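Lay summary

Proteins are chains of building blocks that fold into shapes. Our project writes down both the chain and a compact code for its shape. Here are two examples, one after the other.
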Amino acid sequence: SWLIVKSQLLASEAERVFGREVKITTEGRRHLGAVIGSTNYKEEYCNEKVNSWREEIEALSDIAKSQPHSAYVAFTKGFKSKFTYFMRTISSFEDYINPIEEAISELFLPALFGQEEPLPEELHEVITLSPAQGGLGIPALSEEAPQQYAASTSITRPHVEAILSQCTSMPEITNEIKTNSSQSRGQMPMQKENVSTSLSQPISYFLLNKRGIKEQAHG
């Protein structure tokens, strides 16, 4: 077992009480997949996790060049769920997510569409929509992370308060808390029409026009 304390003074006191029965640290430890500890330990842990994910996205992008549909299904049905838990359990996880968003924008999405360069900015908002709304369901992680964390904080607040007050009964999760949690995750339906009207041309125009310009340059 590990005991995480905030100062060396507390560590010394804890060692006096527990002896060698409990391992003590002032840095931090991985806990249920997330992280608890100092800012430096948190940064080290998150950066290591994000860099490993980026390498996996790079590999998936290579697959997407020859098997775009398989790579897309692998990402949307499995790979992207890796992010959700960490966004919900680590505060300010959006501060560390940039390398992944860069890999998605610069490598994965172009590979899906047979492009070598990043897709036009006009398409990014459409891509984040669900397939039912005409998008790809590929999340904007830096925007989703604070929403996910706020939702997690909201839905678990009664349990946290019960632990702090040493309540002996399980608190009830009210409909109000559930509603606030859903709103925090940004689950209020996004209107596809709003995104569509923000585009100056149909989606196919941006892809085909860009590809045509590139072919002319090579010609």
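And here is the second example, written the same way.
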Amino acid sequence: MDPNMNNLLKWGIQNSSNAQQSPDSNNDGSQAPRTNVTPQMLNALFGGPSEADLMKAAMEALHSDEVDLENKLVAFDNFEQLVESIDNANNLEPLGLWTPLVELLKHKEPDMRRMAAWCIGTAVQNNEKAQDKLIVMNTMPILVSLSTEDPDKAVRKKAVYALSSAVRNYQPAMNEFVKHLPDGYASGKVDAGDMDTIDAIMDKLRAHPGPSS
């Protein structure tokens, strides 16, 4: 049996027993005990979209001409929360969502570029599989360019966040990152486990002057 269904069955039996107790048992005015029903348990009982389905639906909305910017940002916020789970982040590849996500780094709307960088940063954090995907997709130069050249400060900030998540404790990503840094940021090889040096580079990127208006 599905573990969620099993837990839900146990909950039902327990609460059925509680309901059969004497009506006087709660006359002291005490609050009824909290139950442990989770969204996953309810989903197992009543059905509903899986998190993979929600991720795909969000990405469809993000690329739809029929969805306005406000609702796209809502979809992006939901997507970012979903990829906080490493399982969902690792599902980006089999679901075919990496390419459309990276494409949004080049969107004409600053908020869309900002959210795309944010989602990437969340997905790759402490996740070597996702960190490697950024190398395969040649995403590092795009993020470096956004962090130093995007006219929107919020976009630059989230691009730095994505880069910071991408390179920590994963040397191949760090090596690729260093190749695309502007002159004066790093000389020679940078250890992906050297947090002090990484913090210094990221601080320098955050302070990088944006393009002149």
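What can we say about the second shape? The radius of gyration is 23 Å.
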